[in-house]
Each structure stands twice: as structure tokens, then as C-alpha cells.
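Appendix C: a fully annotated inverse folding record. The material below is reproduced so that readers can follow the format used throughout the book. The structure is listed first as C-alpha cells, followed by the designed sequence.
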């Protein structure tokens, strides 16, 4: 009988490569999310600094032009925060989709492993059955030809030649 070969080996290799690729994509999305959160925190700090600066200048007296300039900066930072928040939400949605993809591929890999194990089990069962049939044929052949089917003990006529 031929040696057992997993017919699913190529498919498993492909799925393993695919899951590595998808996990790397997921990791990059997490890195991007973390970078956006850090940017958001930085912009918030800048906004707080401008608000504090505006309030302190208003107390001591500020020119209208300077006040308008600070208000424009504050408005630009608010817009930037809004954009960053939208990007964060998009990345979170992408992460969610990517996680589902990774889970799906992992499930497929598990199913392939189960199928492979089932095929191996069936192969071993067939091999056992063939071995059993071979032994039965061997014994029945030796019994029908009058030879001693005991492999460990030589037949009486074979020992007389020695």
C-alpha cells in the first residue's frame, strides 16, 4: 500500500499563509489606531493650551486681532479632532472586520485539521483492514496447503532437512 500523504497539505499551507497575512494586517490596523489616539491626545493638549492661553490673555487684556487668531486656531483644532475621531471610528470598524476575517480563516484551518485527522484515521483503518485480510489469507493459504500457519515454529518436515 502507498504511504499515506495528506491531500490537504497544500490547502493547509495556503490557509496558514493567509492567516499570517490577515493577522499582520490586523496588527497594522491596531498600530494605526494607537497612532491616531496619540495624535488625538496631542491635539487635545494643544487645544487645552490655547484655551488656557486665551483665558489668561482675556484676563490681562488682549487685542481683538490676537483673540480672533486664537479662536481660529481653536476652531482648526476642533475640526482636526473631529477628523481624527472619524478616522478612529473607521479604523475601529476595519479592525472589527479584520478580526472576523481572522476568526473565519482560523475556523477554516481548524476544519482542515479535523478533515486531515479524519482522513488519517480512515487511512489507518484501511491499513489495519488490509493487514488483517493479508494475515487471514496467509493463514487460510497455509491451512489449505497443509503447511503449519505458525510463523514462529517451523513445520516438522522443514526441521528434518537440517
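Designed amino acids, in order:
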Amino acid at each position: 500500500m502507498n504511504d499515506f500523504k495528506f491531500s490537504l497539505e497544500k490547502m493547509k499551507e495556503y490557509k496558514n499563509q493567509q492567516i499570517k497575512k490577515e493577522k499582520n494586517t490586523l496588527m497594522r490596523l491596531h498600530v494605526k489606531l494607537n497612532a491616531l489616539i496619540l495624535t488625538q491626545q496631542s491635539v487635545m493638549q494643544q487645544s487645552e493650551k490655547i484655551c488656557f492661553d486665551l483665558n489668561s490673555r482675556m484676563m490681562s487684556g488682549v487685542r481683538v486681532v490676537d483673540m480672533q487668531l486664537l479662536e481660529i486656531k481653536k476652531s482648526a483644532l476642533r475640526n482636526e479632532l473631529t477628523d481624527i475621531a472619524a478616522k478612529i471610528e473607521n479604523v475601529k470598524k476595519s479592525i472589527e472586520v479584520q478580526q472576523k476575517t481572522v476568526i473565519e480563516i482560523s475556523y477554516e484551518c481548524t476544519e482542515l485539521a479535523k478533515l486531515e485527522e479524519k482522513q488519517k484515521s480512515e487511512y489507518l483503518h484501511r491499513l489495519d483492514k488490509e493487514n488483517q485480510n493479508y494475515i487471514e489469507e496467509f493463514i487460510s493459504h497455509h491451512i489449505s496447503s497443509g503447511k503449519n500457519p505458525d510463523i514462529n515454529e517451523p513445520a516438522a518436515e522443514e526441521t528434518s532437512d537440517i
